[in-house]
Write a structure and sequence with these properties.
The chain has 135 residues and is α+β, with helices and mostly antiparallel strands. Helix content is 38%, strand content 16%.
């Protein structure tokens, strides 16, 4: 008989509690715990930023987007960077983690030096990695 996969459980937040998949992400510590989990899981697929620091900020609940990656180019020499990943407040933990995996992939593509990709292609790659995160 095939064993059922273990339920998704993000790492503990600072106070020792664990976020459950349907818990609402309302605090910065929740986002940081989820990003830590995203980094760990996507590294298994070779998608890693190593120790590159990423700032994650919470957007208001009324924000039109669930997530966003703010890319930058620092002159000279021209160096690519990522200013921040943004996440809409009050998403469920499982949705927030999926959005973070998607945005993390945007950051990874940019920091790996991929050329500017057609929007549909880049979004498709990011969606694929967010799906792999959920597996």
């Amino acid at each position: 008989m095939q064993q059922q996969p273990e339920a998704w459980r993000p790492r503990a937040v600072k106070d020792g509690d664990r976020l459950q998949p349907m818990d609402r992400v309302t605090e910065q510590r929740h986002v940081e715990a989820l990003l830590s989990e995203v980094r760990l899981v996507l590294a298994r697929f070779g998608v890693t930023l190593g120790s590159h620091p990423l700032r994650v900020q919470l957007l208001s609940e009324s924000h039109a987007l669930e997530g966003m990656t703010t890319k930058i180019i620092r002159p000279p020499p021209l160096l690519r960077g990522v200013e921040a990943l943004s996440l809409r407040r009050n998403l469920t933990a499982i949705s927030a983690a999926q959005v973070l995996a998607h945005e993390y992939t945007h950051a990874w593509l940019w920091l790996q030096g991929f050329p500017v990709l057609e929007t549909r292609l880049e979004e498709g790659i990011c969606e694929l990695l967010s799906y792999l995160f959920l597996l």
